[in-house]
Design goal:
binds magnesium ion; DNA polymerase, domain 1; DNA polymerase iota; damaged DNA binding; alpha+beta; binds 2'-deoxycytidine-5'-triphosphate; DNA-directed DNA polymerase activity; Dna Ligase, domain 1; 5 domains; Alpha-Beta Plaits; 21 helices
């Protein structure tokens, strides 16, 4: 924890970090204005259902505000141009592009919702300071209450450099993507986020540590402190702690009576503008999902239509993400007519990765694959709903919740290949999906985004708590021949993709599985994974003398000798490589990964 003192600790490097928070101005509206420049000069509102979720600054001049009812907005501004913003695809794509661009500074970037990112520029600032005269460094943009006092830890100079970097970053976002942005610069995330909107739009504000406590006391409600959610606010208010000043002044011992000791300290620190949470590099989300809410649906065929529409859209997201899903979750919100309440229920099962095919580096699902997914979805639905009785749903949701993990078999060769590939493609890693809550949930209590709306097709926002491993498939997608230093690494990937004989074998297996896709009694049998089936195909289908028939000999010969030897041993002795000749009873059980899996096609 940082010191609870609000004054600068002269002589100590008390405020070592430099954090930038960037927020896109009227995000959805800017996406629409970039698409159609005629909208730039008119007041514009982005509508979802009957709500204006955002508006351009032209409309804000008329008094149109975020989360206003459309009817009220039109009263305030009769010439308001409305654009439907229920399809989030282009907003998400723009959000990903911004995140990608921010990666180019090679600093940790944490994505927060659609239009916000934290960037920890501490190291970059240190590097810059090695090449400049400290006296020549000036602030860029606004400074919160410039006092002229210098903190001896050197944070003022570092924040000046950070403010120059923030300006550079904002300029690049504008030049390359056309978006104007706001930025907050501070020695921690809390302050950077909170000062960001002080000079909206298209500007930036820096706050120095000595003003933290005073700035925090300008917040009228504890609810405006990011990471203080509704429940904590209620508890605080019930004990007459309403404003941030109240929280600053209440003795810690009193807080500890109402909260855990850690929480009490955290609340106290936050009220003083202190926050030591790190900027965590955002990785791929844990799940990718969509939901659709409505008044009520009580007919199975209608539910099926809703799921079908959701699935189409979800498959676009999955394609953009690049990973192969292996688990599917169905969520329903049931209305309890008797209690006038509703509650959510979910069911999930594993799905076969072979439903997804990689064509020209892009993930696709054939019509047959989509039918299979719909069959699985409706099976899960049947488990959630007793169709012999009437039902009333107000929401359906679909999410892919697990993705094919990077394969790390026992083989040293596999590890050698995987490590190398991850290094080669690391620059291509992307975060393709939306993220919101973080370990410190800044979005929850942001004054600008605190209202949540139950809108159609609302995003299921996965938590980016830990940077996720990027899967083998996602990495492989990024490889171009130029990027691959050793031909052998590419060839293994090619083998996996191009082995026509294996495709045929695998297709046959798929057809036989089709027949078994009828509802099964035991939930354990929801596991539709066919990885082990395919393994069996290899073991039985291959010519195990030297090189099985499905392997391209030219490619095999291009592998290093030691790798060829190891493969030959595996092919000769499938049992020792975890490739047993399974009996039908054991075929559904997962087998250890082996190098041979890299020769398995995805069809
Ligand atoms: N959004 C939403 N529902 C809300 C709030 C916001 O769908 N209750 C969407 C629309 C916004 C986007 O999220 O464009 C980003 O939210 P911000 O709070 O950052 O608002 P804007 O970017 O639109 O405006 P500002 O210029 O104030 O940042
Ligand atoms: Mg914004
Ligand atoms: Mg925002």
């Amino acid at each position: 924890m940082e010191s609870s003192s609000s004054t600068c600790n002269y002589g100590d490097n008390e405020h070592p970090r430099s954090i930038i928070h960037i927020d896109i101005d009227c995000f959805y509206a800017q996406v629409e204005m970039l698409r159609n420049p005629e909208l730039r000069t008119v007041p514009l509102g982005i509508q979802q259902k009957n709500i204006i979720v955002t508006s351009n600054y032209e409309a804000r001049n008329y008094g149109v505000q975020k989360c206003m009812l459309v009817s009220d907005a039109l009263k305030t501004c009769p010439n308001l141009k409305l654009v439907n913003g229920e399809d989030l695809h282009d907003y998400r794509a723009a959000s990903n592009k911004i995140f990608e661009l921010l990666q180019t500074w090679k600093c940790p970037v944490e994505k927060l919702g659609m239009d916000e990112n934290f960037i920890d520029v501490t190291k970059l600032v240190e590097e810059k300071l090695k090449c400049v005269h400290i006296e020549s460094v000036t602030h860029s943009g606004h400074i919160y209450n410039e006092s002229g006092i210098e903190c001896l830890c050197g944070c003022h100079t570092r924040l000046k450099v950070a403010s120059q970097l923030a300006n550079e970053i904002r300029q690049k976002i504008y030049d390359e993507l056309g978006f104007t942005t706001c930025a907050g610069i501070a020695h921690n995330k809390l302050l950077a986020k909170l000062v960001c909107p002080l000079h909206k739009p298209n500007n930036q504000t820096t706050i120095c540590p000595e003003h933290a406590t005073e700035f925090m006391s300008t917040l009228q409600s504890v609810r405006f402190i990011p990471s203080i959610g509704l429940k904590t606010t209620e508890t605080l208010i019930s004990h007459k702690i309403i404003s941030v000043t109240d929280l600053q002044q209440v003795p810690l011992d009193i807080l500890k009576k109402h909260f855990s000791s850690d929480m009490a300290v955290r609340l106290k620190n936050l009220s003083l503008g202190e926050d030591n949470t790190p900027v965590k590099q955002t990785g791929k989300p844990q799940s990718i999902g969509l939901e659709d809410s409505f008044k009520t649906v009580s007919v199975k065929s209608e539910v099926e239509d809703k799921f079908c529409a959701l699935l189409q859209r979800l498959l676009i997201l999955v394609r953009e993400d690049g990973r192969i899903p292996v688990s599917l979750r169905v969520t329903l919100r049931k209305k309890d007519a008797k209690r006038l309440s509703s509650h959510r229920e979910s069911r999930q099962c594993q799905i076969s990765p072979s439903i997804f095919i990689i064509t020209n580096g892009s993930l696709t699902v054939t019509n047959v694959g989509q039918q299979k997914l719909m069959t699985i979805i409706m099976r899960l639905f049947n488990k959630l709903i007793d169709l012999s009785k009437p039902f009333h749903l107000t929401l359906v949701g679909l999410a892919f919740t697990k993705f094919q993990e990077r394969m790390t078999g026992r083989s040293s060769i596999v590890n050698y290949l995987m490590n190398d590939i991850s290094v080669q493609s690391v620059l291509n890693l992307q975060n393709d999906c939306d993220t919101s809550a973080s370990s410190m949930d800044y979005s929850a209590a942001s004054p600008s985004s605190s209202t949540t709306t139950d809108l159609s097709d609302a995003e299921v926002e996965p938590s980016p708590k830990k940077p996720k491993k990027v899967t083998w498939i996602a990495k492989r997608r990024c490889l171009s021949k130029e990027e691959v230093a050793s031909p052998s690494k590419l060839k293994v990937g090619e083998l996996r993709l191009n082995s026509k004989e294996l495709e045929k074998v695998s297709e046959l297996r798929l057809n036989s599985r089709d027949r078994s896709l009828t509802p099964r009694a035991s939930p354990a049998k929801d596991n539709l994974s066919d990885a082990s089936d395919t393994m069996k195909d290899i073991a039985e289908g291959g010519n195990c003398d030297d090189c099985p028939s499905y392997v391209d000999k030219e490619v095999f010969n291009a592998l290093p000798d030691e790798m060829q030897q190891e493969l030959k041993v595996m092919w000769k002795n499938p049992t020792s490589s975890g490739m047993t000749r399974s009996s039908p009873r054991t075929m559904n059980k997962a087998k250890p990964n082996t190098l041979l899996k890299y020769f398995v096609p995805h069809k």
